[in-house]
């Protein structure tokens, strides 16, 4: 069995690549970072260090690696005979990997079974985004795309920080992981990945993960950044930050229980587990990594505006979520392109235009005025 995985970064090596390797796949990494690909191509193994409760070291072997820009033909060839293609490149990058996947699919011998394609990104239905981008790049003379590939949405959960320089290919990760995959597109040909969980209704799992793990994580990052703290575990050790994060997750819990029918006690246990993951002092994770790309994180269907808008539509005024969004507006990391763009938008546009641009909320939405007030307060400080 062969899997081609796009994105040999933190989650690519520390989670998806590891689970595919453990499932018995020969993994082919595809990335555009030349130094990383050279290192992978010349290595025979790398280690994944799981830190926290029950630490362990797992070794990944039997992989190959290609640069999907300069060695595109090789990647296309690999895809044409692969069983699985996965991505962990970031939701905004999917449109760039889609044409390569489309070419690999078009080159696939007709006697091979359909390729299983799964995007492993933090975004709701990321595989649907990838599918749309592949359709745009599809050469219709190559046949019926949906007969050549099966597309399944997934939710991936494992905290993998940026790796310390000098660590080579090895990756430090938390012990916890969860990879939940929509079973329904596969029919009776479900891929063999023992570390993954296949479910018939993925929607609630994706929202629960994004609106609990990622909403809580980003809140810890933005409140921690405001408090002048660098590590997520230090932010969570600050009682004021921890209380604000807890309050945010109380609001998303209310939505998730009401919307998806999760049992409240089970959702509370899920929240507690996640808060304990954020406090893991062995994990060198930073507020800058977790807060990265604030425009994406403040967008319409993401971790703040997504749940806050739904609560407002249900007649509930979110308070803690708005406080976290207010902190996000103050994430001014000069090394983060989106934080720099956010600062420009705040200085160039009036508050209502900023809200429309960043959140895509319209002025008639019940959340709009509250977000506009946050932006006005932020602009008044400048
Ligand atoms: N790190 C985590 O804890 C974690 C957990 C769950 C999900 N995710 C999601 O996984 C995705 C990747 O996150 P990450 O933390 O591994 O980021 P990362 O920056 O460590 O890795 C991304 C990799 O994608 C590569 N890349 C960029 N453009 C590319 C292209 N056009 N073609 C091929 N490769 C390209 C980069 O060179 C990099 O190696 C994101 O969607 C993130 O939200 C991350
Ligand atoms: O990857 P992002 O930028 O969407 O979010 C940053 C972190 O919250 C995220 O990477 C988590 O570590 C991960 O989602 C845990 O499963």
TrEMBL record:
<comment type="similarity">
    <text>Belongs to the mannitol dehydrogenase family.</text>
</comment>
<protein>
    <recommendedName>
        <fullName>Mannitol-1-phosphate 5-dehydrogenase</fullName>
        <ecNumber>1.1.1.17</ecNumber>
    </recommendedName>
</protein>
<dbReference type="InterPro" id="IPR023028">
    <property type="entry name" value="Mannitol_1_phos_5_DH"/>
</dbReference>
<dbReference type="InterPro" id="IPR013118">
    <property type="entry name" value="Mannitol_DH_C"/>
</dbReference>
<dbReference type="InterPro" id="IPR013131">
    <property type="entry name" value="Mannitol_DH_N"/>
</dbReference>
<feature type="binding site">
    <location>
        <begin position="3"/>
        <end position="14"/>
    </location>
    <ligand>
        <name>NAD(+)</name>
    </ligand>
</feature>
<feature type="domain" description="Mannitol dehydrogenase N-terminal">
    <location>
        <begin position="1"/>
        <end position="193"/>
    </location>
</feature>
<dbReference type="InterPro" id="IPR036291">
    <property type="entry name" value="NAD(P)-bd_dom_sf"/>
</dbReference>
<dbReference type="GO" id="GO:0008926">
    <property type="term" value="F:mannitol-1-phosphate 5-dehydrogenase activity"/>
</dbReference>
<dbReference type="InterPro" id="IPR008927">
    <property type="entry name" value="6-PGluconate_DH-like_C_sf"/>
</dbReference>
<keyword id="KW-0560">Oxidoreductase</keyword>
<keyword id="KW-0520">NAD</keyword>
<feature type="domain" description="Mannitol dehydrogenase C-terminal">
    <location>
        <begin position="202"/>
        <end position="351"/>
    </location>
</feature>
<dbReference type="Pfam" id="PF08125">
    <property type="entry name" value="Mannitol_dh_C"/>
</dbReference>
<dbReference type="Pfam" id="PF01232">
    <property type="entry name" value="Mannitol_dh"/>
</dbReference>
<dbReference type="InterPro" id="IPR013328">
    <property type="entry name" value="6PGD_dom2"/>
</dbReference>
<dbReference type="InterPro" id="IPR000669">
    <property type="entry name" value="Mannitol_DH"/>
</dbReference>
């Amino acid at each position: 069995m062969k899997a081609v995985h796009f994105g040999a970064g933190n989650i690519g090596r520390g989670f998806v690549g590891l689970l595919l390797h453990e499932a018995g796949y020969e993994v082919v990494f595809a990335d555009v970072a030349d130094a990383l690909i050279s290192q992978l191509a010349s290595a025979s193994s790398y280690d994944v260090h799981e830190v926290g409760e029950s630490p362990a070291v797992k070794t990944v072997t039997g992989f190959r690696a290609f640069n999907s820009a300069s060695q595109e033909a090789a990647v296309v060839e690999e895809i044409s005979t692969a069983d699985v293609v996965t991505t962990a490149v970031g939701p905004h990058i999917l449109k760039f990997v889609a044409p390569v996947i489309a070419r690999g699919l078009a080159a696939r011998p007709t006697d091979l079974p359909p390729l299983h394609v799964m995007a492993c990104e933090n975004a709701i239905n990321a595989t649907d985004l990838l599918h749309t981008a592949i359709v745009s790049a599809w050469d219709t003379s190559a046949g019926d795309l949906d007969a050549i590939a099966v597309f399944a949405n997934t939710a991936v959960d494992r905290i993998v920080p940026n790796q310390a320089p000098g660590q080579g290919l090895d990756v430090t990760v938390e012990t916890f992981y969860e990879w939940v995959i929509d079973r329904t597109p596969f029919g009776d040909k479900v891929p063999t990945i023992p570390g993954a969980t296949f479910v018939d209704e993925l929607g609630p799992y994706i929202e629960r993960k994004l609106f609990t793990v990622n909403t809580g994580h980003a809140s810890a990052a933005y409140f921690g950044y405001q408090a002048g703290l660098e590590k997520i575990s230090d932010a969570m050790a600050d009682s004021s930050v921890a209380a604000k994060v807890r309050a945010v997750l109380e609001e998303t819990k209310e939505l998730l229980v009401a919307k998806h029918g999760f049992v409240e006690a089970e959702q509370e246990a899920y929240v507690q587990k996640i808060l304990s993951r954020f406090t893991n002092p062995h994990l060198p994770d930073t507020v800058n990594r977790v807060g990265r790309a604030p425009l994406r994180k403040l967008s319409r269907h993401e971790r703040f505006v997504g749940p806050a808008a739904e609560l407002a539509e249900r007649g509930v005024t979110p308070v803690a979520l708005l406080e976290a969004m207010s902190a996000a507006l103050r994430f001014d990391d000069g090394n983060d392109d989106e934080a720099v763009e956010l600062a420009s938008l705040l200085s160039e546009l009036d508050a209502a235009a900023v809200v429309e641009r960043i959140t895509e909320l319209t002025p008639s939405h019940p959340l709009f005025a509250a977000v506009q007030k946050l932006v006005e307060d932020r602009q008044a400080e400048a």
